[in-house]
Amino acid sequence: MPPPAARPEEPAAAPRRPGDPLDDTGTGPDHRPDAPPHRPGRPCPRCRADNPAGRRLCTRCGTLLDSGPPLPGPPRPLPWWRRIFRRDAQRPLAAGSRPRRRTWPRPRLTLPILVLVLAAAAWFARSQLSEVFTFTQDRTGDPKALHPTAVRGSSQAPGHRAQAAFDGYNNRYWAPAAAGPGTDQYLEADFDRPVRLRKLLITSGRSAKADEFLTQARPSELTLTLVDSEGERTTKGVNLQDQPGQQSFDVRGSDVVRIRLTVDAAYGARSDRRTAIAEVEFFGRQ
Predict the structure, then answer these.
(1) Rounded distance, CA 254 to CA 257, Å?
(2) Is the CB of residue 239 less than 8 Å from the CB of residue 123?
(3) How far are the Cα atoms of 48, 225, 228, 253, 258 from residue 231, in angstroms, in the given order?
(4) The CATH number of the domain where 259 resides is what?
(5) Do the Cβ atoms of 255 and 189 come closer than 8 Å?
(6) Which residues form the NAD glycohydrolase translocation F5/8 type C domain (predicted)?
(7) 114 lies in a domain?
(8) Within a domain: 57
(9) E strand segments, the chain
(10) Crossing angle of helices 107-124 and 126-140, rounded to 10°
(11) Predicted confidence pLDDT, tens digits, the chain (286 residues)
């Protein structure tokens, strides 16, 4: 048999100087090969690296991938209304630990005690709270007209009874029987229910008209006597101007059932004149 032909020897690599062009090794493919399809793996619970499905240890950090079911998280806290009357079971203490000492009362007792304290404070302060409420009403609301159920005078001139000073007309007036300044003569009004007096309107003289105003004497000083439902009396002095029309006075009284207006002095008093009061009006709240 003839001997096998010898393989031709590959030419040795020629020496190359720095800067010489490289040999043409041919052109590569005009596209990149497709990446292998991504298969869902198992993420590492520690470094989150993706691992093949069959692995038990992470390829990056070596953490055990199959660590069993996740541990349960801490329980959600109960609402406060369920924690008030709940009795907690005694939890076993870990080795080497001590029970914690309570320095504050239990929350389930704090709220009921606070409610009881507030209720007791409101009960003992109910009168003060009522006064505050009434004071707020007086400040924010307009006073209402208070109409007496009975009126009387210490005396009266013919045709000028005490009712004329409370009838709503300022062209009719009350006058005492005796002429002169009318000192110590009075008008008195009663209320069937206690009232809170806030304002007093007085029209002095025989009329609000200027030409009739000066024909009779006019009170210049009055003493108001307020009587409450307990019989307690409160007095206040009032000074009037010598002018026709209404004059307003702030007079405050609580639980008032009777008001007396006593004449102390008068303008234009003469022996042929009587002290006249055309109208008296009360304002406040029932």
Answers:
(1) 9
(2) no
(3) 91, 11, 5, 13, 9
(4) 2.60.120.260
(5) no
(6) 156-282
(7) no
(8) no
(9) 42-43, 50-51, 144-146, 150-153, 186-204, 218-228, 233-239, 246-267, 277-285
(10) 70
(11) 556 555 556 555 566 666 666 555 555 555 566 655 666 677 888 888 888 877 888 888 888 886 555 556 677 777 777 776 665 556 666 666 666 666 655 556 677 788 888 888 777 776 666 665 565 655 666 789 999 999 999 999 999 999 999 999 999 999 999 999 999 999 999 999 999 999 999 999 999 998 899 999 999 999 999 999 999 999 999 999 999 999 999 999 999 999 999 999 999 999 999 999 999 999 998 8
CA 169 vs. chain centroid, Å, equals 45
Using left for φ > 0, alpha for ψ between -120 and 50, and beta otherwise, residue 75 falls in beta
Please state the pTM of the whole predicted model: 0.54
Between CA 138 and CA 241, with CA 222 as vertex, the angle to 5 degrees is 85
Give the burial class of 160: count Cβ atoms within 10 A of its Cβ; 0-12 exposed, 13-18 middle, 19 or more buried.
buried
Type of residue numbered 78 = L
Question: Which phi and psi angles does 232 have, rounded to 5°?
Answer: -75, 140
Question: Considering the domain boundaries, does residue 22 fall inside one?
Answer: no
How many angstroms separate the CA atoms of 132 and 33, rounded?
90
The alpha carbons of the chain give a radius of gyration, in whole angstroms, of 53
Q: Which of 222, 207, 212 is nearest to 265 (CA)?
A: 222
Note down the domain range covering 252.
144-285
What total number of domains does the chain contain? 1
DSSP 3-state assignment of 138?
helix
Q: Report d(CA 169, CA 86) in Å as an integer.
A: 73
